[in-house]
Amino acid sequence: MFYYADIPDEWKIKPYLPVMPILWQFYQELGWKRTTEYFKECQDSAYDFFEDRLNESIKTSELVFKGKIKEPDKVLSYVISIPPVTIRSDLVQGTTKLLGGDSFDVTWVALDDVSQEIFILLNAHCEDGIPVDWWMVRSEDELLDRRHMKLGYKTRNLPIRMKNFNKTAMRLFDVLTDIRNERTPWWAKSDYTVSIVWVSYAVELFLQGSNYETLTKIFDGWAARELYGLPDYIFSMFSNLPSVLGGMFYGGKQSFVSKITQLTTGGHLYYQPIEERTLKRHTASTPEIFDILKRRAMDNGVPLPIQSLNSTMPNIKKKSEPDTRFVVKYPDKNFINVEDMGLTFDELIQGVYFDITVETQPGEKFDESRVLSKGIGSKTKFTR
Length: 384
Hints:
Elements: H1 21-44, H2 46-65, E1 76-78, E2 86-88, H3 92-100, E3 103-111, E4 118-127, E5 130-138, H4 158-162, H5 165-183, E6 191-198, H6 199-206, H7 211-222, E7 235-239, H8 244-249, H9 253-265, E8 270-271, H10 276-285, H11 287-300, H12 305-309, H13 345-348, E9 352-354, E10 371-374, E11 381-382
Parallel strand pairs: 3-6
Antiparallel strand pairs: 1-2, 3-4, 4-5, 6-7, 8-9, 9-10, 10-11
Helix pairs in contact: 1-6, 1-11, 6-7, 7-9, 10-11
């Protein structure tokens, strides 16, 4: 067992571990060295991961638009404006236009947990609610040496210079707008949003599994400072237009999660996958990580949507109990046993869409009839 006090203070995300239960479990069981080795593996495989996700999103949208997917209400894809979140294919166009507008770019900026420099930029563009293009810039790219016109700082160093996430997002917006306009001048008048996040928190979001759990963690990251009294936000957004998504946060966690799940899956539970190429690479290099994920899903079970909605964090500022203040509190721990529905972990981690909503209560019967489809995008298999 490893302890909070043993984590080096140079790790910028250390104060935020109370809202990162999966990474906290990794650290407790595996220690600092092995956990950071896994982060390094995530960084090295980031391009493959996002290439698979974004290309599949574009491919699925094209197939739906051409009428080549028979049951788009059972086929999941990804929300371009919120990369860790999945969306039903029949809802992509309407929801994307609502959240981003008719023509927009969104750039996600991930920051290195130690150096605080930019690790990666991921930009995606949507037209009329359909994802049509994306590009990525890694930490070694000379593009990040470009300087802010007024401040003179290199783009890669802006997060260090600005001190807090809101100011960082604003200054990155200045530089990245020019870069976007130079790379794709035909979209120069499109709306634009920049979002920044710590690499480790992005990993936490992508490993949540349940779409409801992912969204509760997204809210926790946004509310880290005001709600939990942490030093700063874990992610932030800056846009050149009033953000519908940003406004949803102010309704509170239950409202935010309920609205986004309605817009993305019609309120249904979806266990979100890890792409095949990434899964093979990570299980080969860090098999103990996936043993933990398997135990979380198969031994502990998957929280029902109503349980995720009503979950709360303990007093994470209670430093007198540094190693017990990380445990998420659920009103009921009678979680879903996925084996009752005839599912293995290998099937679950490839994506499963359930006939389970916020109306579903603990104690109800869960069997194979609850499984609507397996997989994601063009690889989806229908079960009923």
